[in-house]
């Protein structure tokens, strides 16, 4: 196994070296018909102590290595490190390597499109995977200019961080030479290649590009106007707000197969191609994709332009991008209810993890890179984003943005620590943020804020002083047919008790506008009124906050799953497309996973009835039909989907899977549907339908594909198959697979970061767990030598699972 770079080793190497340039020549011609990637990495670097020794990172077969004209012994490399002795003041290192493990998603993935046999290759290097393809000093603070050349099959297009300077034929291949990049961390370099379909458009001062595999050309062309529009709007928004336009003319986005998410490579973002939706997308899908596009774009400033010095400040990258994407959506796109969507789809996940043993401070302790992977979670992304949203409210948005502008201007192309950012915010706002920083970033857990008459009482879960909060309390009159706004009060919480001037009305919503990251309660009468009459609140954010407060009461044992289902039924009847699909999904989770097993069918049926009532409303028709196809119970539910399906193969797959779950799998219909499905990944939909059956042989087939062969594409396809595999009324059949899930975890170390995260999270058996399984899962998480990513995910699953069992047994 390659060694994991420690924080101390990284600091020592950064103190010794100044890396100035990488010239990386890659040969991709061996990938068209085989697995081998070849590279020659030429590294120019300075040494501050001539005569000293260090090492370069390289996890590949070394075929030749030369330091300052002196040949090095490739066999001296061990654990992914090639020793470098006798350094001079000015050094040039040349290392020639080959890498044939290109099928695992560890830094690189070679995929073959099942529909046409065409080969595509993508790379993604966070946190330290560049070393798998070429020799480099693979740590974020040793930034350097990168210049790539790539020899590729003549039919292939190659993309990298910058624009191609020249493309020349060499026999049956073409050599792509790319412009030098600005100083970049090794983890945001990129080379992608294959016979891509390409679309380009000019927008302001930028040349925008979109790429996808040929089999998805029609879907990219369908969505190109929207994607180009989002990209142009985002670049304009961030450039103006940060007072620093994106400084490179070319900005590409490459949509690739079997990638579980996206990666913020400078100037050439790589996205999962699952966001080129194979059927008509819903508003929620389009909103989620906009969030993804803007999240990765925000990294151009926060992560790429200015980079954390070490992985303990990973949140500086991910939390910022998560906050900035929602901020830009609400301010620069049609998705103006983005903060309500974020509460439902993101912030709620942060709350969930923060109440369990897998929580951690936002600024984590990361002794080595391996532990950094464990922090790619809902605390880093979602809680971190919510805390930045709180900080923006605490300082005022103008001061917050002014601090960001100063930070980018001072640290462009450099590396920073947390104090650099907080110092910029302090200078812009005139507020001392030392205590705020410690309270919010170095403590785990969620404060509870309770409105008790004229006092807001705050408690922290660790027994210490509560954190500072800035929030609003809204009052409503409840006498009429609808809840009528009666006033609003802004409160800055300092200490356990804060006097509150009553906002008017008799019903109170704490944290109106959702500025604070906190569990909130008002008096019991207000809580019950808002739960039962949430649909009468005046806007999507207020209604969603009432629902998520109800959800928080469920997971803490104060309410039943039925109560959440009824609140969902109330809000979806009146809400808009930004939140209805997510609200229905939350209701289905409450019905299937948080309700006593004997009451699950009735709860699911009530939710399906609520969806059926939305089918005739154009803005809700598609998500309503999808919910009916997923949860339909009565004959009329499934008949409505059959009538609507027509050419919508997504709907057809969903209802086929639902019928299979109910014991009526139609193998002939599945074959016919697969033949007419234009999705190159339709095999995943077929497996989802097959695995929905209460049949052991079918489950075995799906298990083999998911957990052994790992042949299901990462991302939504894998999550869909996993969801249809673990059905809540099939507990007896699935118990053995829950045990096998724990047995197979040890083999996931070669699945790459995204592979590990995707498999362990998606396949946690929430639907069928019991006390025995949870005890065994906790034991597995605490075992010596367990991968930190696996440990965190297991502990999080165990904590959530115990809450679910309490609700099911309550």
Give the terminus-to-terminus CA distance: 47 Å
* Main sheet attributes: strand count, strand direction, barrel closure: 8 strands, mixed
Strand order of the largest sheet: 5-4-7-2-1-10-13-12
Q: What is the total tally of β strands? A: 28
On the 0 to 100 scale, the average pLDDT is 95
Strand content: 15-25%
What fold name stands as the CATH topology of the domain at 1-195? Immunoglobulin-like
CATH architecture name of the domain at 1-195: Sandwich
Relevant CATH superfamily of the domain at 1-195: tricorn interacting facor f3 domain
Report the uncertain regions.
none
Q: How many helices?
A: 26
Gross morphology is globular
Q: State the helical fraction.
A: 40-55%
Counting helices, strands and paired strands, the structural category is alpha+beta
